[in-house]
Amino acid sequence: NLPIFILAIESSCDDTAAAVLKNDKILSNIVANQSIHNEYGGVVPELASRAHQQNIVPVIDMALRKANINKDQLDAIAFTQGPGLMGSLLVGSSFAKSLALALDIPLIAVNHMHAHILAHFIDEEGFDKPEFPFLALTISGGHTQIIQVNGFFDMKIIGETTDDAVGEAFDKSAKILGLPYPGGPLIDKYAQLGNPKAFPFTKPKVPGLDFSFSGLKTQILYFVQKNVALNPDFIAENRNDICASIQYTIVQILLDKLKLAVAQTGIHQIAIGGGVSANTGIRQAIKDGEKKYNWKSFIPKFEYTTDNAAMIGIAGYQKFLVHNFENAAVVSKARIEF
Ligand code: KG4
Ligand code: ZN
User: Fold this and answer.
1) What distance in Å separates the CA atoms of residue 79 and residue 309, rounded to the nearest whole number?
2) Strands 5-10 and 15-22
3) Rounded to two decimals, what is the model's pTM?
């Protein structure tokens, strides 16, 4: 059997990414971050699409060079169809279509949320692949979902957020503390130096497997405002403890729902994905679940958790194997059926 070479392109939000795969192995995985958004405290769609326009050719060029692959060796182009920002998605899909047409090779459309889950099937030394069925917790700036994964493209959402995503909960809490965007990684950094029980926050009461984070955000806002009124240096003096307490509460909210999902489905394999699964508190809690709750936990390599094209490539490879191709009329979708 000849190896399959796939070029994958991801441009759904504010990262321009390209990867080259040889079957289920990653030959290169390039991401260009857009620092332009930091000064605005969030992603500015107009600026994101413009930056994708600037970055896409050099990023793809670098991915091919690092993989030591000539474009004529490619067997297919995979791209992110959605969900995401329309102006960002269009840059990746237009480029993918044109290149597939020029090279006369198949075009593969990938659902970004499927890809976060399928990242677990990348062949990587020291990382096991889950077996079907398993439970996936996808946690990012845009999503918070528990998914029952029965097959590569047979997935069912069994729980999700009713308001903010968990990444937003991190980023908005960070903003309240005066930290720059995206604040999630900074909360994580300071949390490692603080006491998680210093400031107890209450967990929201949400039925079933669904989540809610907007109440927690308001609770943190009032807590900070009240204390800063008493002591203007409250944040500076307690930064690590506040961050540790916020992170601890968020981790407990996620853990509670995962335990319930395991009880309801009888499935003990837990895989995490999405940008927030880079969080050290969450990674530790999921890992500890192996001993505490008899889980088998799957935690991807860091570079495959935040937005990347390697995950688009592995999803594309699975579609290639079943010849699930698109014609050039395929459209980007800001929202997409799971
Ligand atoms: O998956 P991702 O890269 O993009 C989306 O599709 O949203 O996730 C980005 C989110 C941001 O909210 C960011 O603050 C959060 O992931 N994040 C973290 C950490 N690293 C990234 N949140 C908490 N702790 C981290 N270490
Ligand atoms: Zn993502």
Assistant:
1) 8
2) antiparallel
3) 0.93
Q: Is 76 helix (H, G, I), strand (E, B) or coil?
A: strand
What confidence tier does 46 reach under pLDDT thresholds 50, 70, 90? confident
Phi (first) and psi of residue 270, to 5 degrees: -120, 125
Alpha helices, DSSP H only, in the chain?
45-67, 86-103, 112-118, 166-176, 184-191, 214-230, 234-265, 280-293, 310-321
Give nearest CA residue, ligand 1 atom 13: 184
Pocket of ligand 1 (CB under 6 A): 13, 140-142, 167, 170-171, 182, 184-185, 188, 274-276, 278-279, 306-307
Q: What is the mean pLDDT of residues 282-298?
A: 97
CA gap 124, 1 in Å, rounded: 21
Crossing angle between the packed helical segments 166-176 and 184-191, to the nearest 10 degrees: 70
* Per-residue pLDDT tens over the stretch 84-102: 999 999 999 999 999 999 9
Domains by residue range for the chain, with CATH: 5-119+305-321 (3.30.420.40), 129-299 (3.30.420.40)
Assess contact for 71 and 105: CB atoms under 8 A.
no
* CA distances in angstroms from 178 to 171, 246, 281, 323, listed in the order given: 10, 15, 21, 49
Burial degree of 68 (CB within 10 A; 0-12, 13-18, 19+): exposed
What are the binding residues? 112, 116, 138-142, 171, 184, 188, 279, 307
> 144: CA distance to ligand 2 center in Å?
11
Closest-lying ligand 1 atom to the alpha carbon of residue 171? 14
Helix 166-176 and helix 214-230, axial crossing angle in degrees, nearest 10: 10
